[in-house]
Specification:
It is globular and about 45 Å long. Helix 5 (135-149) crosses helix 6 (164-180). The chain has a single domain, classed as Rossmann fold (3-Layer(aba) Sandwich), CATH 3.40.50.10320. It has 10 helices and 7 strands. The protein has helices spanning 10-20, 26-30, 57-71, 96-114, 135-149, 164-180, 191-194, 214-225, 228-231, 244-247; strands spanning 48-52, 76-82, 121-126, 153-157, 184-187, 207-211, 254-259. It comes from Streptomyces albidoflavus. This is PIG-L family deacetylase. Pfam families: PIG-L. Residues 12-22 have a biased composition (Low complexity).
Length: 264
């Protein structure tokens, strides 16, 4: 993940406040019975293209299922839009260029832990917090990758996640998937923080659950631990991006995807 950018329009400022506020406790989500009734979607045939705005998004939202696909020898392609260099603004310990290098290393280790082939990893290096300015280029790149890989499914951050970069990647994925005629699943990341059960802002009727085995959960936990810059404080940046209470949302025995039903 990365924090919202410093230059905010009014709507972006409201979204940033929702993300920066105290979040919904995982115990509240665990007590909500609705996810137990969500259907399990059938995985289409062919390779799967997984998109992320920042290094770690793909692991938090879809890491367990990616591990399952890799174990089944399914071809999993991962496209990361940014290097996440804006997650610790003002840090002298890890200024942007050093942080970008660190996060690329962490992602490589995390994808290794999931079993994702190193030959199927793609990087765009767009500016962190500024993905929306490159949405057209991103959509074109995703469409080209969907065609060249023969992907049968596109998976991306949810376009209602309230983080501008996540939403831009989600919108670009929707445009690309529609142009190629490929199904689209979107995974929430920050939603579990700012939303509450039955929240009217979330399309619960399109939510599906992807059960995870003990082995898949273990691989996902191992992958998440690789993101040291996000799960531990820096000497000059004590705020942790992914504290235990945030990680708890992404350590369940299932993952959630919002299935797009109309890509016209």
């Amino acid at each position: 993940m990365s924090a919202p950018g410093p230059d905010r329009e009014p709507a972006a400022s409201e979204a940033a406040r929702a993300i920066e506020a105290a979040g919904t406790d995982e115990r509240e989500w665990a007590a909500w019975p609705a996810p137990g009734e969500w259907p399990e979607p059938a995985l289409p045939e062919g390779p799967v293209l997984v998109l992320a705005a920042h290094p770690d998004d793909e692991v938090l939202g879809f890491g367990g299922t990616a591990a399952r696909l890799a174990a089944e020898r399914r071809e999993v392609h991962v496209l990361t839009a940014t290097d996440g260099e804006a997650s610790h603004p003002g840090s002298r310990v890890l200024p942007p260029e050093a942080l970008a290098r660190a996060r690329r290393r962490e992602l490589a280790e995390a994808l290794d832990a999931l079993g994702v082939d190193r030959r199927t990893r793609h990087r765009l290096a767009l500016a962190d917090t500024r993905v929306g300015a490159h949405e057209t280029v991103l959509a074109r790149t995703v469409a080209e990758l969907l065609r060249s890989t023969g992907a049968g499914l596109c998976v991306a951050p949810w376009r209602g996640d309230l983080h501008a970069d996540h939403e831009a990647v989600g919108r670009a994925a929707r445009t690309a998937a529609a142009s190629v005629g490929v199904p689209l699943w979107q995974y929430p990341v920050w939603m579990w923080h700012w939303a509450v059960p039955e929240d009217a802002r979330v399309p619960w009727t399109r939510c599906h659950r992807l059960p995870l085995s003990a082995a898949q959960r273990a691989r996902k936990r191992a992958a998440v631990r690789r993101f040291r810059t996000q799960t531990a404080p820096l000497p000059d940046h004590p705020a942790v991006i992914l504290p235990p209470e945030e990680l708890a949302h992404h350590q369940r025995d299932f993952e959630t995807v919002i299935v797009e039903t109309d890509l016209s």
